[in-house]
Amino acid sequence: MTADHYAALGLAANASLADIKKAFRQKASFYHPDRNDAPDAAQRFQAVQKAYEVLSDDTARQAYDDNRRRNLLDDPLHTAQEIWQAYSTRILTTTTP
To answer: Do residues 55 and 5 lie in contact, with contact meaning Cβ atoms separated by under 8 Å?
Structure first.
């Protein structure tokens, strides 16, 4: 499964660069392994870093968005499963104390 960079930052696909930067700072601070002792903190921190790397670069973001659109058209069932999994994971992790 490919990473959903927008989900890693908690953003919609139409997010502005300012939104991306703000979300990155918040998520990176929260998941930084020195501040968060959760077992998956380092992995989530790396996902946030990679998401920012891709989404903050206009060329990389355009390629990523084009690939997302192509995947949706090529395999909609798989894409729907990925979207649902990312959504349910985000809901479960934000509602769990």
So the answer is: yes
